[in-house]
Amino acid sequence: MRRRTRLFALMALSAGMLQGCQTLDKVNILAAIDGPFVPRSERGANVQEQSLAAAAASEEETIIAAPAPEEEATDVATAFADFRAPARTESTPAPPPVTAPRPEPATRELPALAASVLEMAPARRPASQPALTLPSPLTGFRSFYEFTLASLAKPGDRESMLLADPPSLNPALKSCERLPPAVLIDLDPAGGLIPLTSSSAPDPEFATSLATLRRRGATIYWISGHLPDAEPQLRELLKESGMDPGGIDPLIATGLGAERKQERRHALGESHCLIAILGDNRGDFDELFDYLRDPALAEPLEVHIGQGWFIAPPPLD
């Protein structure tokens, strides 16, 4: 078969050379005819494969060339945009830091019982007000004298009229054991000092009662807020009134602001048994009464009024 094909080609070439200008076209035809020999049985298969390949290439070009729908692309972009965090711009200020509020300081509570019962007063306070109705000098002095005389007659240990624990408002008293008996008389009026030039008339009955108590063994103590340098004037007043004609009674001059009467009372309670106290207000028995917020809280202490604590006008007033 190949020999026959070549022979036809030579014949065609010869004819082309004879015909002149038609040579070029025939050569092209022969060039197209000349090529690798393919059997007839394989030609159909090759043609079918080439057709399938051409169809596949055409379909691929169609898919590649087809543009995506604009609406679908837009929806996808929008969907992804929803999941993006908004970018912070310079014009958007950052939120200010949160500052926790500063706790207020708690108020510290005083543990002492006196803080809840007593007023936190300055060191210098006026004495408590006198009783609304003071007993007459004769009544007050007589009660004082009779109680003291009865206490001196009792055998055994005596009880002091000083509170054992004043801030507790407990009426319990200190024990005297075997201390010598004494009484305490406050010379000053409530909220002031006794005048150093008194014009009061002597009280013979009270002077006689005091003399009796001295003979029975009681020591008479006098107390005033005057300075110690006022002692001579005070003693002269006691002599002139007949309260201490011999000038033998102990006199306590505390001095305002220098020493409290409370301190002197308790110091006296260390050496003597105070079986009775005479004054014109409850603060003369214990300074607790001068600091009470509510006087009704001291109700338990009222048992001592007339039973060791006696209220009467100042003896030299």
Could you provide a short overview of the structure?
Keywords: Signal. This protein is an alpha/beta fold and about 325 residues long.
CATH homologous superfamily descriptor of the domain at 128-311: HAD superfamily/HAD-like
The CATH architecture of the domain at 128-311 can be given as 3-Layer(aba) Sandwich
Strand adjacency order, main sheet? 5-4-3-6-7
**Morphology call:** globular
Distance between the termini: 172 Å
How many strands, what sense, and barrel or not for the largest sheet?
5 strands, parallel
Number of strand elements: 7
Q: Report mean pLDDT, rounded to a whole number.
A: 71
Radius of gyration: 65 Å
Query: What structural category do the secondary elements indicate?
Result: alpha/beta
Poorly predicted tracts of residues: 12-45, 59-92, 97-135
Number of helices: 9
CATH topology of the domain at 128-311: Rossmann fold
Q: What is the ordering of alpha helices and beta strands?
A: HHHHHHEEEHEHEHEE
Q: Percentage of helical residues?
A: 25-40%
Protein described:
The structure is a single chain. This protein is α/β, with parallel strands linked by helices. Among the domains are: 1-32; 128-311, HAD superfamily/HAD-like (Rossmann fold), CATH 3.40.50. Helix content is 39%, strand content 10%. It has nine helices and seven strands, in the order H-H-H-H-H-H-E-E-E-H-E-H-E-H-E-E. The protein has helices at residues 2-19, 23-33, 40-65, 70-82, 113-117, 137-153, 204-215, 231-241, 261-271, and strands at 159-163, 173-175, 181-186, 219-224, 251-253, 273-279, 309-311. It has a five-stranded parallel beta sheet, sandwiched between helices.
